[in-house]
Specification:
Blueprint lengths: L16 E2 L9 E5 L2 E8 L2 E6 L13 E3 L2 E3 L6 E3 L5 E3 L8 E7 L2 E7 L18 E4 L3 H12 L6 E4 L15 H4 L14 H4 L2 E4 L4 E5 L4 E4 L4 E3 L2 E4 L3 E3 L12 E2 L4 H11 L4 E5 L3 H12 L3 E6 L6 H18 L3 E4 L3 E5 L2 E4 L4 E3 L2 E4 L3 E3 L2 H6 L7 E2 L11 E3 L4 E5 L4 E3 L4 H15 L11 E6 L2 E7 L6 E7 L4 E8 L2 E8 L2 H16 L1
Parallel strand pairs: 11-12, 11-17, 12-13, 17-29, 19-26, 20-21, 20-26, 21-22, 28-30
Antiparallel strand pairs: 1-10, 2-3, 3-4, 4-9, 5-6, 6-7, 7-8, 9-10, 14-15, 15-16, 18-27, 23-24, 24-25, 30-31, 32-33, 33-36, 34-35, 35-36
Helix pairs in contact: 1-8
The structure holds flavin-adenine dinucleotide.
Flavin-adenine dinucleotide binds next to helix 1, helix 8 and strand 32.
């Protein structure tokens, strides 16, 4: 993965700095040779770790220290200061650590430390004989990696209906679609990764049934697989539009890498695109196609884009941002029909278009769970440990509805980082950890150079408290209900987003 590489600025840490220049609140950025390094003081201890997030190269010097971790301001990845371990996604790889020496009031950074060895677990009867993971997306990949990172040595099979190895799905509507992210950013791992970890990755392989009584997964090609523990991580499927012309070849959905590639191919000749739905994905597509100089129209029934999640003020800000970039909105309307060269809206307005992208939401892919007889209610129901109604069968990611400790309700979200974190927790619980899933939900969405970060979960609210300037895209919105803040959205205030996340965690722990 790449992004904005931090350059070697600040003091030369090998030459030493004074202890007084370090404070407990924020990391100090310096360098060791060409490598950017942050120094963090925790009481009498001083840690020196890499300054660059291994997800998209976010600047950890601008991050937040929580306990013995540093958190990235961009997408909330979290690293352990003692080991460099990526303890929370979206980062999958550790940051390096250096040895620190103190001489009186001076602190010196010495040599880089070797990576911490991974634990090895002897195979025991308490551990599952084998693990099968259905779904090679965010949750499934994180689960497979975590099982090995935790030292599980039994067989792991990762089944994916997709033809591509696990990839960075959020980028499919952003820089990749805009043509500014190279192809090598997209796979989560290199080609040999799964074989090296002894993870059997079966691509283009769809599971069609689960036999709970015999602990079997049946595949579309007629094979079947036994499992000791099973993870369902089948994600979500885009909702299709049900109007005349919706199956025409120039009408696209966007969920998979193949979908994004098809859209990119169409965008090379298209001149006018109609995006149906002013959702996160619809508007990210709008921004990416504007970067390709395609005329973009957005049609959606609501008064402001993203209003249902972000409220009217932030929705209006996002609308203004897109309008400044030339996007033409048709709000309060839907599409009545699509023809090869135009579409007609519910208002009878005709829009000439040679490319249509439908972004009207997704449905959790629960068909397998339903067939197996698992408890399903607008998602696969799981307990606090992410176990479904069947022992040894877990669910994670977009399909899972879990008891959220903060709201006291069962919730289901469609966030990349949540899916990865759930995959990790489910994997550890398969190995007997008994770990509750209590992470505070987080997502981000990117439009041109503007990123919106959102922590918490507010399906409804009774007021939104807005600080800062919407115009300057520097603001924080707090979503209140019955005297509590349920969620916080920020633009241009990454550190406050991290602080809100930490405050929500502290509240849950109290
Ligand atoms: C274009 C796009 C942009 C996004 N941007 C953001 C963003 O900026 N921020 C954010 O937080 N979230 C974003 N999301 C949402 C995020 O990607 C999802 O929440 C996340 O991928 C969910 O992970 P998952 O593992 O549950 O499902 P997925 O990642 O969808 O993976 C599910 C996998 O299961 C496979 N599968 C399904 N059924 C079967 C079967 N029967 N047998 C075998 N395999 C099966 C699928 O092929 C797929 O590989 C975006 C999503 C999209 C589509």
């Amino acid at each position: 993965m790449a992004g904005g590489e931090a350059s070697a600025t600040g003091p030369d840490l090998q030459a030493g700095i004074t202890l007084a220049s370090l404070n407990e609140e924020s990391p100090l950025l310096g360098h060791v040779g060409e490598e950017p390094v942050i120094l963090v003081r925790k009481g009498n201890e001083i840690f020196a770790v890499g300054a660059t997030c291994t997800h998209y190269s976010g600047p950890l010097a601008e991050g937040l220290i929580v306990g013995e971790t540093v958190r990235c301001p961009w997408h909330h990845a979290c690293f352990h200061l003692r080991t460099g371990e990526a303890v929370r996604p979206p980062a999958l790889n550790p940051i390096p650590c250096w040895r620190v020496e103190r001489h009186g009031e001076m602190v010196f950074v010495r040599e880089k430390l070797p990576p911490s060895p991974r634990p090895v677990r002897a195979h025991s009867p308490e551990l599952p004989q084998s693990v099968v993971i259905i779904g090679g997306g965010a949750a499934g990949n994180a689960a497979a990696e975590t099982l090995r990172n935790e030292g599980y040595s039994g067989p792991i099979t990762l089944l994916s209906a997709d033809d591509a190895a696990p990839y960075d799905r959020p980028n499919l509507s952003k820089d990749y679609l805009a043509g500014t992210a190279p192809e090598e950013w997209i796979p989560l791992r290199g080609e040999s990764f799964y074989a090296e970890r002894n993870i059997t990755l079966r691509l283009g392989t769809r599971a069609v049934a689960i036999d709970l009584a015999h602990r079997l997964v049946r595949l579309a090609n007629g094979d079947s697989l036994n499992y000791g523990a099973l993870l369902l991580a089948t994600g979500a499927e885009p909702i299709r539009l049900n109007v005349p012309g919706a199956s025409l070849p120039h009408v696209h959905l966007l969920r998979s890498l193949a979908d994004s590639r098809a859209l990119i191919a169409a965008a090379t000749t298209a001149r006018r695109c109609l995006v149906i739905g002013a959702s996160f994905i619809g508007l990210e597509v709008a921004a990416s196609l504007r970067a390709r100089n395609i005329e973009v129209h957005v049609v959606a029934p609501e008064a402001h884009p993203m209003e249902r999640v972000m409220g009217p003020e932030l929705g209006a800000m996002i609308q203004a941002l897109h309008t400044e970039h030339g996007v033409c909105f048709h709000l309060g309307a839907t599409v009545a029909m699509i023809a090869p060269d135009h579409a007609v809206l519910s208002t009878s307005e005709r829009i000439d278009t040679d490319l249509v992208v439908v972004g009207i939401g997704v449905r959790p892919a629960t068909a397998l769970a339903e067939q197996a007889g698992l408890a399903v209610d607008r998602g696969v129901l799981v307990d606090a440990y992410l176990q479904t109604s069947a022992p040894g069968v877990y669910a994670a990611g977009d399909i899972a509805r879990w008891p959220d400790p903060r709201s006291g309700q069962a919730i289901r979200v469609e966030h990349w980082v949540v899916a990865e974190r759930q995959g990790q927790v489910a994997a550890r619980n398969m190995l007997g950890s008994k770990e509750r899933f209590d992470a505070v939900p987080f997502f981000w969405s990117q439009h041109y150079d503007t990123t919106i970060s959102y922590v918490g979960h507010a399906e409804t609210w009774d007021r939104i408290e807005l600080d800062g300037s919407l115009k300057a895209q520097n603001c924080i919105a707090r979503f209140w209900r019955t005297g509590r803040i349920l969620a916080v959205a920020t633009v241009g205030r990454d550190r406050e987003s991290l602080e809100a996340e930490a405050a929500f965690e502290a509240e849950s722990a109290a």
